[in-house]
Amino acid sequence: MYPTYHCSPPVSKHTKAYLILDSFENGIDGGVSTCDNRYHSDETLVVALSTGWFNNGGMCLKNITNSGIMGAVWWPWWWIV
């Protein structure tokens, strides 16, 4: 699929990441989600994670905390798929 590098630093709640707008709708940007093998409407807020954050599926279907310049925001409807 793609290379995974073991030299990457460990991921923690303090590891910085980028949030990029994408779509999981059928026929738009990408394919089905890895966690549940389904497409998702753009009405449903979902997050695609990099390899380290994905943690071999260990983060599937969990809520996330998104913190940035404006502070931390918990989005209970943002699912990791």
Secondary structure: elements and pairs:
Layout lengths: L45 E2 L3 H4 L8 E6 L2 E10 L1
Parallel strand pairs: 1-3
Antiparallel strand pairs: 2-3
Brief summary:
The chain is mainly β. It has one helix at 51-54, and strands spanning 46-47, 63-68, 71-80. The protein contains one helix and three strands; from the N terminus they run βαββ.
Mean pLDDT: 72
Structural class: mainly beta
Order of helices and strands: EHEE
Q: How would a crystallographer describe the biggest sheet?
A: 3 strands, mixed
- Beta-strand percent range: 15-25%
Tally of individual domains: 1
Going across the biggest sheet, name each strand in turn.
1-3-2
> Shape, please?
globular
InterPro entries: Kiwellin-like (IPR039271), RlpA-like_sf (IPR036908)
Subcellular location: Secreted
Protein name: Putative rlpA-like protein, double-psi beta-barrel
Organism: Rosa chinensis (China rose)
How would you describe what is shown here?
The chain has 81 residues and is mostly beta strands. The chain has one domain (1-81). Helices cover 5% and strands 22% of the residues. The chain is built from 1 helix and 3 strands. The protein has one helix at residues 51-54, and strands spanning 46-47, 63-68, 71-80. Strands 1-3-2 form a 3-stranded mixed β-sheet, with no helix packed on it. The chain starts with 45 loop residues before the first strand and ends with a strand. This is Putative rlpA-like protein, double-psi beta-barrel. Its main location: secreted.
